[in-house]
Design goal:
Radius of gyration: 17 Å
Strand order of the largest sheet: 2-1-3-4-5-6
Structural class: alpha/beta
Oligomer: single chain
Number of helices: 8
Largest sheet: 6 strands, parallel
Order of helices and strands: EHEHEHHEHEHHHE
Shape: globular
Distance between the termini: 29 Å
Length: 227
């Protein structure tokens, strides 16, 4: 049993077949939500608005955006790598919000949840491009969150790392002895956060039980960062 449910909620999940998309769709459905899943990358500037328009009434927008993380030293990062990361993970975010937020503000009810990254909260070598894009996401969500709060719309983010998912920590990565040693060395939890553990927290933030959180960023990373 959970202390919350999502019955009657229409939830749009973007990039539903990558990153946290598959488990989010499963968990949200199990908790009673009607999930509208869209698997497409959102490079086309017109696509976010089209997806939201086709979905119609949306109670919750879950912004799930991801690319394989580049591992280029900062002095070698070229414009193409930088632009690609921002085109996939940053540019679609305001387009989605501009499309979904007006109906929520009009109803004075709704939620937007970003599935972001804790790489924006702690420096790591060879991640300047990826971390910058994830940091831009978080800064945007914090700002929109305080704007939307007056309209009874809650906008928040999960900043995750070391969470089981097929994009960044697939089984072959988890089985690598060097990665297992890294977990023990860097993550106080000593293991990956389970994908369902993360998805259940996301589901809570999508529910009416979480109406008090606005513009907040929640690390889900096994203690890798504390804020």
């Amino acid at each position: 049993m959970t202390a919350f449910n999502l019955h009657g909620k229409r939830i749009l999940v973007t990039q539903s077949e990558t990153f946290m998309g598959p488990v989010l769709c499963d968990v949200l459905t199990e908790l009673g939500a009607e999930v509208i899943a869209d698997a497409r990358a959102l490079i086309d500037p017109e696509l976010p608005e089209a997806i939201v328009r086709a979905a119609g009434h949306i109670d919750v927008l879950v912004v799930n955006l991801a690319i394989p993380a580049p591992s280029t030293p900062a002095i070698q990062v070229g414009d193409d790598e930088w632009r690609n990361a921002f085109a996939h993970m940053v540019d679609p975010l305001p387009r989605l919000v501009r499309a979904a937020l007006p109906q929520m503000m009009q109803r004075k009810s709704g939620k937007i949840l970003l599935m972001g990254s804790a790489s924006a909260l702690r420096g790591m070598k060879r991640t300047s491009t990826y971390s910058a894009a994830r940091g831009a996401q978080i800064a945007y969500i914090q700002s929109v969150g305080v704007e939307a709060a007056a309209h009874n719309v809650q906008v928040n983010a999960i900043a995750q790392n070391f969470v089981e998912n097929p994009t960044y920590f697939p089984p072959e990565v988890q089985a690598n002895p060097a990665f297992q040693e890294r977990l023990k060395r860097e993550v106080p939890l000593g293991r990956l956060v389970g994908e369902r553990e993360d998805a259940m927290f996301a589901a809570y933030l999508c529910s009416d039980a979480a109406n008090c959180f606005v513009g907040q960023v929640f690390p889900v990373c096994g203690g890798w960062v504390a804020r």
